[in-house]
Predict the structure.
Amino acid sequence: MTKTENHEEVVDKPVKPEKGLPKKIGDAILWFAKDQWFLIGIVIVTIVSSQIQVPESQQATKQVVVSYLAVTAIFFITGCTLDTKILLNNYAKWKQHLFIQAQCFLLVSSLAFAVVSLAATNKRFMDPWLLIGLIFNGCQPTAMASNVLFTRQSHGNVHLTVVETTIGNLIGPFISPVLIKMYLSADAWYAQAVPPQSGGYGALYRRTFMQFGLSIYLPMCVGQLVRRLFPKLVNKVFVEWKVGKFGSIAMLSLLWQTFDHAFATRAFSSVKPSNMIFIVFITIVNYVVWLLISVALALLWLDRKDTIAVAMCAPAKTLALGIPISYLLFTGISGLDEAKIQIPMLIFQVLQMGMASLSTIGFRRWVDAGEKKTNNDEELSVEEQETSTKT
């Protein structure tokens, strides 16, 4: 403590001790666990599903119940937390819709087909049904709930992501089967594994639209209605009480049920280790390439928030349509062959979520930096106008 000339006592501010290395490492681990808890959750549910599975007799019931309840909860929460006017404004962005859907269906599927064509040059290397599964994955529409979650974490345009998700999964049942049959009509050796097919898409369309109507569109409309009727209650529950995080837990339960089914049917053990390594490697490469292309193209004409929506929607793929199509598109194939078609989609799903979750760290900082720069430019512009007025 020191004294000034006026005999006033001044208290010296205590100097904060510098953090040691163990403390810094501990803080970094704690921050990562809080920020990436969803990624940690993916690892946990994958490990649990690999060790303990629901009995085979209850698999069908579990799949229906968990899928409907989880997706319904996610989109009800989404409907409650999105501004209706902003949502409608984003539906009017037809240029963005064409841009994102063209990438998701056409660009990504053509690149997937190119990879399969290269891998198929050695007939003894890859299982034909795994190659067909890679084509299946590339032709699927964008993912649903995970896109919304990761866009929100990245501070991107959540409204645009919701719109692209609903549009993609609405047109997916029409476009995906056509794309798959087009790529398999190239008369490659792996396509010959598919037995001759007959019949249309009626069963596929009925099942898919019933699922999407009941688990996506209806819950989101109800959520919007609840938001309009009880705005204060909705704000208190989903913002102050943070109930919106339940959507992330629902997403983890959806992922658990998918992997539980895969392990219960022993789909992974039926594939050669070399094939599994290739699927994992090419999944990572595909996602990174698709992500970089979509971001590079979006930056040419979109702002940062819309670019985030593109980054989350264009390279992502959904299991909600891929799994039903794998059951319904082909007739006369064994359950093991169906499981092999699903393996590339399952692996892509978990790796996609892991990489997208990690990317939110960089995307969030990038968006926040852009907003800070915009605010500084606006403040500087106001100051310059005031100075000009005074002079």
Observations:
- The beta strands are 2-3, 9-10.
- DSSP finds 15 helices and two strands in the chain.
- The mean pLDDT is 85.
- The domain at 59-349 is CATH 1.20.1530.20 (Na+/H+ antiporter like fold).
